[in-house]
What we know:
The chain is mostly helical. About 50% of the residues lie in helices and about 0% in strands.
Amino acid sequence: xxxxxxxxxxxxxxxxxxxxxxxxxxxxxxxxxxxxxxxxxxxxxxxxxxxxxxxxxxxxxxxxxxxxxxxxxxxxxxxxxxxxxxxxxxxxxxxxxxxxxxxxxxxxxxxxxxxxxxxxxxxxxxxxxxxxxxxxxxxxxxxxxxxxxxxxxxxxxxxxxxxxxxxxxxxxxxxxxxxx
Length: 180
């Protein structure tokens, strides 16, 4: 399967695979995964407040929309109130170079599992989402689901026939002929 996906899609395929397996095992709530995919919807209301001086207003509005929508999910009851009342406690997560290593404040570090924390980090730090997904896959399925196998042209050739040719889709600077 790895050879038939574009590089950028392999990680998303593995993430979808692991989440679907964990939904079947009852370890991930399907509503949480739906929220991960769709985010807050327009009909969900939130109370606008002024942003702290260390967050710009546009980012703050995006965070608030998410926080109010996620608080309607199972296990997140009261999260919006706690976040608004204790925003300064989340500053380290929002401003850290490695927010995954920062513990969530209060009861939320123990109350939320790894996937639920990814939901929150998606709102607070969307720039590290792919890093969070990579670590989640590695923790749940293992290293082999995030590492890309080297292309073995000899094995590929053995799998070909007149009806199943090898097709290379390359990017600038990539030359598969160097391996031939």
